[in-house]
Amino acid sequence: MKLIYRLGISLCFLMLISCNGNVAYKEYDTTFVGNRWQKNDVKTFNFELKEAGNFDLLIDFSHVYGTQFAELPIKIVMINPDQSRKTADYVILLRDNDGKELGDCSGDYCDLREPVLKNLQLAAGNYQVSVANDFQHEFVPNVLGVGIRLEKSED
Fold first, then answer.
1. How far apart are the C-alpha atoms of 51 and 114, rounded to whole Å?
2. Calculated CA dihedral for residues 81, 149, 30, 103, nearest 10 degrees
3. In what side-by-side order are the strands of the sheet with 125-133?
């Protein structure tokens, strides 16, 4: 009986590990003083991509439930190994037209994961991705974290 129990636990653990097989890189920043994302606080992520391929760049964003605004405009800059740049303006939708939270909310926290750039052909090498808020005020309130995730494209 103990053997079956141990095999079940091991199988569950292996399934959890294999779920992230498509993730080439991920990092998450929670350094927001007073849960405020200041306009001049550009979050920068540096990483090395070991193998070339097609990838999707996703943004992870967490905020306090009940935000007073429906969307968050952001600017993305990706610097490639050859120092060329790819830029994108993107709007993270936080609520729908009826005011319902669009994130995965649990208690007072809501998490969103948004694909920003899809099917990027990336070479192996060192990359830098910067994420800046383009909010109309000096800071975005009630921010818990922002991060990036680079996943192998499924297309």
1. 23
2. 150
3. 43-49, 125-133, 71-79, 85-93
Q: What residue has token string 């405009």?
A: 73
The Cα–Cα gap between 2 and 11 comes to 14
CATH of domain 23-152: 2.60.120.260
Question: Domain residue spans in the chain?
Answer: 23-152
Helix, coil or strand: residue 80: coil
What are the residues whose beta carbons fall under 8 Å from the beta carbon of 96, sequence distance 6 or more? 70, 102
Helices (H), 1-155: 2-18
pTM for the full model? 0.82
Contact in structure between 150 and 26 (CB atoms under 8 Å): yes
- Is 102 strand, coil or helix? coil
pLDDT tens, 107-135?
Answer: 899 999 999 999 999 999 999 999 999 99
Category of 105 on φ-ψ map: left (φ > 0), alpha (ψ -120 to 50) or beta: beta
- Taking the C-alpha atoms of residue 93 and residue 71, their distance in angstroms, rounded to an integer, is 4
